[in-house]
Write a structure and sequence with these properties.
- By secondary structure, this protein is mainly alpha-helical.
- The chain has one domain.
- About 50% of the residues lie in helices and about 0% in strands.
- The protein is built from eleven helices and two strands.
- The chain has a two-stranded antiparallel ribbon with strand order 1-2.
- The longest helix has 19 residues.
- It is extended, with a radius of gyration of 22 Å.
- The N and C termini lie far apart (about 70 Å).
- About 20% of the residues are buried.
- This is Putative Transposon I factor.
- It comes from Penicillium brasilianum.
């Protein structure tokens, strides 16, 4: 480009996701774990906080970093090692939250702190993503991927492009998903008037309800 040779990277990054040639996502998981551990260490320096407040900080500051784009890189049928690394981050955080012994079982920590296990948290994230995608118009290009994942759910056809989405679909009802309100993201023409130009609500509650 412009007389310069651009050497391709073995681990390019796009929108915060690190890719590799074989799409094994090893570098992506390693970076997510490192970022998560740094945040957990920072939270450990806080004092005078109740366990409930620490749990809220963990769910607000750590899990979004660790789970970022997990619907793209996490495969529940294959990535057992990746899941174990992610569980280590949660275990370290929960030990700090309730000041527990390091020998305590992870399942006990999750029960005591009212935190979902890592694999269930990732599944819930995938389910939320699926529900949001189903609100897009049927002409949206993502629907090709959703239909392919649906066939994977029913064990029809080739493997899904996003296996985590296909596995999460097995726990959801397609009929209920199709009932979701469709949201058209297409910008409205500037000359089109809004549906409600002015809304007035009566100050009296009874009159407003009537």
């Amino acid at each position: 480009m412009s007389g310069k040779t651009i050497t391709p990277s073995a681990t390019p990054k796009l929108l915060g996701v690190t890719f590799d040639h074989e799409l094994r996502w090893k570098e992506q998981v390693q970076q997510a774990v490192q970022k998560g551990n740094r945040v957990v260490t920072a939270l450990g320096g806080l004092r005078q906080l109740r366990p409930e407040q620490m749990r809220q900080l963990y769910e607000a500051c750590v899990t979004p970093v660790v789970d970022y784009a997990s619907t793209v890189w996490y495969d529940p049928l294959r990535d057992k090692t990746h899941l174990q690394h992610l569980r280590t981050v949660q275990r370290t955080a929960l030990i700090r939250i309730i000041s527990a012994f390091r020998t305590i079982a992870t399942s006990t920590l999750e029960v005591e702190t009212h935190v979902l296990p890592t694999h269930l948290r990732l599944r819930h994230r995938a389910q939320t993503t699926i529900a949001r995608l189903h609100t897009l118009p049927r002409k949206h290009p993502i629907w090709d991927t959703l239909l392919r994942a649906q066939r994977r759910r029913n064990n029809i056809g080739t493997s899904a492009r996003f296996p985590f989405v296909a596995e999460a679909l097995k726990t959801m009802s397609p009929e209920r998903l199709n009932e979701l309100e469709m949201i058209d993201l297409t910008p409205l023409p500037p000359w089109r008037t809004e549906a409600f130009s002015n809304i007035e609500i009566e100050p009296d509650k009874e009159i407003a309800i009537a």
